[in-house]
Write a structure and sequence with these properties.
heterodimer, A: 85 residues, mainly alpha, 2 helices, B: 332 residues
Chain lengths: 85, 332
Amino acid sequence: MIDRRSVFFVLSAVVGASMIPLSGPDLRWVPEVVAVTYVVLAVLSFLDYESRRRGSLRRAATQWRTGPRRALRRRAARRAAATGR
Amino acid sequence: MTVGVVLVIALALAFDYTNGFHDAANSIATVTATRVLTPGYAVMWAAFFNFIAFLVFGTEVAATIATDVVDPASHVLTVGVIFAGLLGAIGWNLVTFYLGLPSSSSHALVGGMAGAAVARAGFDVLVPEGLRKIGVFIVLSPLVGLALALIVTVLIMWAFHRWRRVELLNRGFRRGQLLSAAAFSLGHGANDAQKTMGIIFALLIAAGRATPTSEVPLWVVLSAHTAIGLGTLRGGWRIVKTMGSKITRLQPVGGFAAESAAAATLFFTSGAGIPVSTTHTITGAIVGVGATRRLSAVRWGVARRVVVAWVLTIPGAFIVAFVSSKAVELFT
């Protein structure tokens, strides 16, 4: 799994950077700023994606740890209900 | 002024009218998609700000169109060539309008002028620096719009994420959208009306009524803004639908961010004398707003269709104008 948004921003940065040699000297700063901005956006997007992924991994790990215990409790409750106790 | 010059000026103004008609969607798509204004009021709002743009901006874009696409010193820009260039641009605009594709009228115009001139005197009459500047900003303008819209949206989210009264916030941004739509219409009027001014200015140079260094006459400025304002009043609903709802679903805050970002981009490019596509810019900005949620919030199929239309516009208008220019040459 990769962060598609980061990849999109990296590609946009590459496109922006490829415009630098084509620009005239008076407006060269525009593609430079665009390329740098997209690199920063790509890094921030990747960090956002990673923090979300780790958050969901942590939740999954907690569920994995508590999951069997819950399942045992549910099975015991069902048995108790079936035997009428 | 000869009858031919007057007729081509009328055709240029007709092109400006179709430009307003075609691009009205860009100015009002987000404001109608978020139901801030009814379509009728939205077009009036946009047309008014299209018209008054001449009070705010200069004529740098007009000078770029008149002198930086085809070399005025080559004397290839005759009345017939400008007529053929306009035919190419209008023809291409009508094709994309019929197909409901938000292509760029501006690039149709650049492609048309280049195609008509090349048909007469070959590729040597084109100005490489001018075309390179226009080409670079064909690519950069949607990227700038996208990044700015994304940054504005994130800043707004940071500023208001603890705000509990969402309805009040939405109401605030609905009002803000009136301002952002006005700013965008101002930018649209400034950049797009100037392209027609540039064509008329080139025509006046060809007719010996102006020199490349003289100022664009006031009557040219006023007539171009009037034509684009009237075109916007008529509106183009097929494209409104594509821009307003098919690319991504917008809330008032997103509409505000997209229009503000696109307006800022247009203000900068108009000031720097760079003819950019308002369609490219607002589409990039709308995608930027969608990308703050996740990339899958953007309907990439529609965005791809838009990109295809962009890629085809300059060659398409170039070919139509090339053929028109050859036909005009036969009859003159």
